[in-house]
Amino acid sequence: MFSDLSQSPLSKNLQRLFLLRNIVIAAQCMTFALAYWVLEMQLQWTEMVTVTALLAVLNLATWLRLRRNWPVSSIEFFAQLLIDVFALSALLYFSGGSTNPFISLYLLPLTIAAAALPWAYTWLMAAITISCYTLLLFYYVPLPHDHEEHISEFNLHVSGMWLAFVLSTVLIAWFVVKMGISIRERDKDLALAREQALRNEQIIALGTLAAGAAHELGTPLATMAIVTGELQNDYTENSEFQNSIRILRDQITHCKHTLTQLLADAGQARAEDGSGQAADHFLSQVLDKWQLMRPSVKFTYQGKGVQPAPQILNTQLLSQSILNLLNNAADASLKHIEIEANWNDHELQLEILDYGEGLTGEAAQRAGEAFFTSKAPGQGFGIGLFLANANIERFGGSVRLTNREGGACTKVILPLIRQST
C-alpha cells in the first residue's frame, strides 16, 4: 500500500500509528452509534462528530504523506501523537471530562511515545497528558443524568471503563509487539552486516596474501623453468629422463599460468570478468578442468534439466569455487564421487556426494569459517571452503554441507540468468 517504509524504524511506526488511528476512528463511530440510537444519550453530537471528522481528514493527510519516500523525524512522529491527544481531549470535554470511562485512553499515546521516541519526548508527552487530564477534572460538559436510573448509569459507567481498559490493553500490546519485532529485525540485520563486513575483511586479507605470494613465487618458478630447460638440453639421449623433465616443465608452466591468471583476475568486478554461458556447458568445462587436476579421482556425473539450458554467469571466481568444493569432496573420498546437477529456468542445484567419513559435530557447525579445517596438520589451510562459500553467496547462491548415509553431501544452489522473451 505504501512505497518504501523500510528506511527507518520511525517510518514503520508511523505506518502502524496510521493503522491504529483507523481502528480508533472506527471504534469512535461505533460508540457514537450505540450512544445515539441505542442509549439515546443527549450529547454535543455536532461538536463530537466534527472532531472525529477532522481526525479522519488528518489521518488521510498522513496516508498521503506515507506514500512519499520521506524520512520520518522524531518531531514529526511526536506531532502525530499530539494530534491524537488533542482529539481525545476534545471528545472527552464534550462527553463528561474526567467522568468519562474512556479517560484511560490517554495511556495509549504515552505508551507509544515511550516505545518509539527518546526519553525527552516521553516525559513531555507525560506532562501534556497529565495536564489535559487535570483540566478535564474542572472544565467539561457534564453527561446527562437521570437520578431515577442511577444504578443503571453506574453499571454503564463501569462497563465503559472495562471496555476502555480492554481496548487500551489490546492496542498497546499490538503496538509494543510490533515495535519489538522491528527492533529484533533491525538487530538481526545489523548482526548480518557485521558478519558480512568481517567476512569481507578476511577475504581482502586473503587476497592480499595471495597476491603477495604470487609475486614471490614468480621468481623461483622462472628459475626452475631455466634449470629444467638446461637439463633437458644436456641429457637429450636419456628418453626416460626427458619424459620426466617434460612432465616437470609442464607442471611449472601450469603453475606460472595459474599465478598469471590470479594476478590478472585480482580486483576485477563481477560484471567485468564474467559472461553468460549455458549451465550444462559451464559444468562440463569445470569438470574437464577438474579431471585434469585430479586424474586419479573417479567420479560419475549426471546432469538434467530444461533444454536449451539457461545461462549462468561464467566467471573465474565461480568456477574456482566449485573446483574447491570438488577438491574437498575428493580429499574426503579418494575412490569415488557422485555429481548430480539439476536445473530449471531459475536456478541450478548441484550436489556433490562423497563416500568419506562424513562431518563431525564440530565440522558441521564451523564448516565455512576461515582457517578452520578438519584435515590433518599440513594438509589444508581451511580457506578453500570459506572462499567458495563467500564467492557463491556473492553471486546470489548458497552452499550447504550435510551428512548422509555413507558420507557427506555438498549442495550448491546458484541463480541462473533469465532469458528475455
Automatic annotation (TrEMBL):
Keyword Transferase: yes
Entries under Pfam families matching the protein: 6TM_PilS, HATPase_c, HisKA
Segments crossing the lipid bilayer: 18-39, 45-66, 78-96, 124-141, 161-181
Domain of life: Bacteria
Statement: the UniProt record of this protein carries the keyword Transmembrane: yes
Molecular function as annotated in GO: kinase activity
Catalytic activity field: ATP + protein L-histidine = ADP + protein N-phospho-L-histidine
Gene3D superfamilies listed in its UniProt record: 1.10.287.130, Histidine kinase-like ATPase, C-terminal domain
Histidine kinase domain sequence ranges: 212-418
InterPro entries according to UniProt: 2C_sensor_his_kinase, HATPase_C_sf, HATPase_dom, His_kinase_dom, HisK_dim/P_dom, HisK_dim/P_sf
Chief location: membrane
Topology term for the membrane: Multi-pass membrane protein
Protein name: histidine kinase
Organism annotation: Nitrosospira multiformis
